[in-house]
Design goal:
about 425 residues, Growth Hormone, Chain: A
Length: about 425
């Protein structure tokens, strides 16, 4: 069957989750770009900002406890709808915060509601794409994290200067309500979708077990104890625990790095931050493209995934030299950070796909929820024991560049460690079978 005969509606679905992920990351990135203004208004120090960041991560981790299972139970259409509606309300609510405590509450609400995005998105990909296309589809929708992070520095500082920080939260947070309309109109699972051709339906399920061809399988409550009894679950847990915090470090602290090292403020920060996330967008899509090309060369799905992730782990290493290169020219630091961010997104696209490769569709949301929770816990540890203590200590000594050097070293080495642990745990086993 020719590709043109298959149909392309699945890519419409991919575009929907791309835009949801873009809005998700736009909402969470706003505060980092307002850090300087909010610090002045509320008299924050690095410890206060780190505490607010930790509040988001703690609530995100708690949200992940139930988000994945709730998505599995409600289904992608309803589960994604309510998750997006609630996090949009939480994002707008930041505008009405008038104290440090109020921001902590708003960030907590945002964290617990935004936790639904990735379990819903990965489950959607598992429902709408054959395994050989899932890494590419995941890379495309996951590039929304970069696009959101690009839009934020190009718009939020401008809104802040002209209309005030409150409107930055209101306008960005309101975008989710527009997305809800398109989601409700355009989305349904393949088995029920009236616009899906039979050829495309068969292609989507071309490498799917017969008992999973019906997309909305009855919800089966599977205990965490049972799920965590599988080595494959722990492989994903360690992969997320060690590498998710690195991406959050970029997201929450890149503007501060540019201000601390190069004295950029406000609108001036927008271009270098946008450059980092533009590069990472290319990495996200390329991360899904590479394993697909390996599969086309008759390399097995699981080996293609393993080789690709090793390549991406090595691609992060140059960030160790970001401080040295940045002393020569700021843009050298920006480029090497952008290259590392691109490698992270390529890694992340395949990390998510490992779950849909190895686990049945009916529990993909639950496994992503568990892994996402541990990724958030890793971010909490990094904030508590590295960022908060290091940044407060070294800024007091007027040596903040030392703290960033340590963080870049951690960022550069985390992926190789994660890859080695993952491959040890995954072993030669392929799919998890639930009886």
């Amino acid at each position: 069957m020719q590709q043109a005969d298959i149909g392309k509606y699945r890519w419409t679905i991919c575009s929907l989750i791309f835009f949801a992920t873009t809005i998700n990351y736009l909402d969470r990135a706003v505060i980092s770009l307002l850090k300087s203004s909010l610090t002045t208004e509320f008299k924050w120090n690095d410890g206060d900002y780190a505490n607010i960041e930790i509040a988001f991560k703690v609530s995100y981790a708690l949200g992940m406890v139930g988000a994945g299972r709730l998505i599995d139970k409600l289904g992608t259409k309803i589960g994604y709808f309510f998750s997006t509606m609630l996090w949009s309300i939480a994002a707008v609510a930041h505008a009405f915060s008038n104290s440090t405590f109020g921001f902590g509450v708003a960030r907590s609400a945002l964290g617990i509601t935004e936790a639904g995005n990735f379990p819903a998105a990965i489950k959607t990909v598992a429902e709408w794409f054959p395994k050989k296309e899932r890494a590419l589809a995941t890379g495309i929708f996951n590039s929304g994290t970069n696009v959101g992070a690009i839009i934020a520095p190009l718009t939020v500082p401008w809104i802040n200067v002209h209309w005030g920080w409150q409107w930055a939260f209101i306008l960005t947070g309101s975008l989710g309500f527009i997305w809800l309309i398109f989601w409700w109109i355009l989305y349904e699972v393949p088995a029920k979708h009236k616009k899906l051709s039979q050829n495309e339906f068969e292609f989507i399920h071309s490498d799917t077990a017969k008992d999973e061809v019906v997309d909305e399988l009855p919800f089966e409550k599977i205990s965490w104890i049972r799920l965590m009894g599988y080595r494959q679950t722990w492989a994903v847990i360690f992969g997320k625990f060690l590498t998710d915090p690195i991406w959050w470090f970029y997201l929450f602290w890149l503007p501060d790095f540019l201000e601390s090292e190069y004295h950029l403020k406000g609108i001036a920060i927008g271009l270098p931050v946008a450059m980092v996330y533009t590069l990472s967008t290319l990495g996200s899509i390329g991360g899904g493209w590479l394993p697909l090309q390996l599969i086309k060369r008759n390399i097995s799905l699981f080996k293609a995934r393993k080789v690709s992730m090793l390549i991406y782990a090595f691609c992060v290493l140059p960030i160790v030299f970001a401080q040295l290169l940045g002393s020569l020219n700021m843009w050298l630091a920006v480029i090497v950070i952008g290259f590392a961010a691109a490698a992270h997104q390529a890694w992340s696209a395949n990390m998510y796909t490992v779950v849909s490769d190895r686990f049945p569709k009916k529990i993909v949301g639950s496994v992503i929820g568990i892994a996402g929770m541990f990724g958030a816990i890793g971010g909490i540890f990094l904030s508590l024991f590295v960022q908060k203590s290091l940044f407060v200590h070294y800024r007091a000594l007027n040596q903040i560049e030392t703290a960033y050097y340590i963080m870049f070293f951690i960022s550069g080495t985390a992926y190789l460690l994660a890859w080695m642990i993952m491959q040890t745990l995954l072993g030669k086993k392929e799919e998890v079978v639930f009886n």
